[in-house]
Amino acid sequence: MKKLILSLTLIALLTASLGGVAFAQSRQEPLPEVTTETAQGSAPAQADASQSMYPAVHALVMAMTENHLDYDPEDPEFLWTSLYYMLSLYGEMDERSELTDDTLILPSEVVQDYAAALYPDVATLPEIPAPISERISYRASDGAYRLARGDEGLSQVTVEPPIYLSSGAVVMNGALESLEDGSALRKFQVTLAARDCMFGYIITDLTFSD
Fold first, then answer.
1. Maximum separation of any 2 CA atoms in the chain, in Å
2. Domain regions of the chain by residue span
3. pLDDT confidence of residue 152
4. pLDDT digits over 7-51, tens only?
5. Which of 99, 133, 140, 175 would bridge 184 by S-S if both were Cys, CB 3.0 to 4.6 A apart?
């Protein structure tokens, strides 16, 4: 079974390269240095929801904000725009990826693994709609997706420690902050549910308070 190396150390390095994306709790104490080889379909045992789901939350907040989208996982444009963000920001960390000067190449199984943290049904992804097709495309000849690499942006996403509810749901509060002065541009709340997938959870809702 193919495996993905999820390293909290690598995430920390990646967030620095993205211009300061960080966990809110990292301001209080450093994240533990954990490198875990994780089988496809599971999340690192040492990682809580805020750590394992940070890539999905980060991507979803940025996609919704920059493209003025409402949370609607049934909408193909919403689905592919937010999935593109997640793949372009974090896909190159996956050992199954291939990186050229300006293109990230990902097998379809990688795309489905990442989509499983965002959407309830990823067995059959819808066709890529026109607005996003200039940034991501599928080539049937090799069963791989090709992504144009995006900009890093001038903002960061922070998340607070997760709240585990008796219902089984997990709630996290967070903010989109300016890199220039650290001010909160938007505050949000994301709801998660446990899922048997690579990231361990799925996002079931994300709302902004502004």
1. 49
2. 3-208
3. 62
4. 343 344 344 333 333 434 333 333 333 333 334 444 444 468 999
5. 175
